[in-house]
Amino acid sequence: MVKIVIDAMGGDFAPKQQVLGCVDALKKDKDLYLILCGDKEQIEAELAPLQYDKARLEIRHTTQTISMEETPTIAVKTKRDSSLVVAFELLKAGEADGLVSSGSTGAVLTAGILKLGRIKGVSRPGLCPAVPNNRGTATYICDCGANLECKPVNLVHFAIMASAYAQCAGVKNPKVGLLNNGTEDHKGLMLQQETNAILKTVDCINYAGNVEGRELMYGDIDVMVSDGFTGNIATKAVEGCGKAVSAILKREYKRNIFTKICALLSGGVIKNIRKGLDYEAIGGAVFLGLTKAVVKGHGNSKAKGFAACIAQATAAVREDLVGKIKGMLDSVDLDGATAKANEVHQ
Predict the structure, then answer these.
(1) What is the pLDDT of residues 306-335, one digit of tens each?
(2) Residue 341's closest CA among 164, 101, 169, 178?
(3) Could you count the other beta carbons within 10 Å of the beta carbon of residue 318?
(4) CA neighbor of 1 nearest in space, from 58, 47, 41
(5) Per-residue DSSP letters for 119-150?
(6) Any long-range contacts for 250-255 (C-beta under 8 Å, 24+ apart)?
(7) How far is CA 190 from CA 151, 185, 249, in A?
(8) Spatial separation of the C-alpha atoms in residues 315 and 2, rounded to whole Å
C-alpha cells in the first residue's frame, strides 16, 4: 500500500477540487491510501456526497493555510499548523511515502528543503514537469522555476535527476538536451557553454548536446535541461500556446454554417488535438532532489489534474525514484568531469 499525504487546502480551488481528485485517484488505484491535511469540516462537506473507500482515506485537521501571497520562508516557519507544513511533517515522520500540493511553489520548495532535506550530493532540487510533445509522449524539463540563478553543477544535477525520472516513467535511455539559443558548442552564455562541456563527459546520461526551445514539444529529446528562469518562461509559453491553439480552433469552427459542419465532421480530430495539448492531464512537476517523492500541481488544478499528480507521486514511490537518483549521482565523478571538460573547453 502506497501512502500519499495531501495538502488539501493548497490551490485556487481548494479543497473542492483536491477532494474530487483524491476520490478519483482512489477509484483508479486500489493499492493507494491518502491522508488529507486541512480543515476537517470543509473536507468532510466535500466528501459527503461522494462514494469512495473510507478505509483508504483519512483526514488530519489543520487550522492554518499558506496563501500564494505570503513569503514562503516566513510562512513555513510560523504557520506550523498549516495544511502544507503538517503534510511535510507527516512525510518526514514516515507516515507517508509521498506528498502532493497545489499550493505556493515557493512554500512547497522551502518546506521540502527545511523539513525533508536534499539527497546527499544534490546541489539544488529542481522542478521537473512533463510537457506533451508531438510524439504523443512527454518531454521532461528541469528546472522550470525553483532556481532562477544557477551554476553548471546545478544544471548537471538537473540532467542526472531528470534522466532518472524519465527512466522511472518508462523511457529507456532518455535523450538529454541543454536548452540554448543554438545547437553549436559556442552558443549561449558562459553557464550554457560550461554546462555543455561538462555534460559531454557524464557517462550515466545520454547527452545529445545543445537544443533550441522548439525541441521541447517538437523534437526527439526526452529531457530538456535549463536554469529555472529560462525553463519557467519556456513551460509557460507552451501552456499558453496550447490554450491559444484550442481557442483558435473553437473560434474558427464557429465562424459560419460551413465551418460548423466541418467541425461536426472533424470532431474526433479536434478532440485528439485538445487531448494532446492538455498538459494538466499529465500532472504537475516533481521536485527532484528531495529525500522523498514530492509533486507540485498547478495552482489552478482541477480534479483531473490533481488526480494525475497523485498518480505521479505514487509512481515515483513505486519506481524508487529517490533511490535511482542516488545511484546515478554516486556513479558520477563531478570533479573529474569538470576537470576533463575544462581541458576540452580550453
Answers:
(1) 999 999 999 999 999 999 999 999 988 776
(2) 178
(3) 14
(4) 58
(5) PTT-SS-EEEEEEE-TTSSEEEEE-SSS-SS-
(6) none
(7) 10, 11, 41
(8) 9
The pLDDT score that the predictor gives to residue 276 is: 57
Alpha carbon 234 to chain centroid distance? 14
Q: Please give the C-alpha separations between residue 307 and each of 19, 212, 246, 277, 313, in angstroms, as whole numbers.
A: 9, 32, 23, 18, 10
pLDDT tens figures, 139-167: 999 999 999 999 999 999 999 999 999 99
In 3D, which of 85, 92, 97, 87 has the Cα closest to residue 3? 97
pLDDT of residue 44: 98
Q: Say if residues 7 and 102 touch (Cβ distance below 8 Å).
A: yes
Cell numbers for 210:
545543445
Taking the C-alpha atoms of residue 153 and residue 198, their distance in angstroms, rounded to an integer, is 9
Name residue 60's beta-bridge partners.
37
What's the CA gap between 345 and 201, in Å, rounded?
Answer: 12
Grid coordinates of 91: 512525510
Place of cell 535511455: 173
Provide DSSP, 226-271: --HHHHHHHHHHHHHHHHHHHHHHHHHHTSSHHHHHHHHHTHHHHH
What is the per-residue pLDDT across 165-174, written as a single tens digit (0 to 9) for each? 999 999 999 9
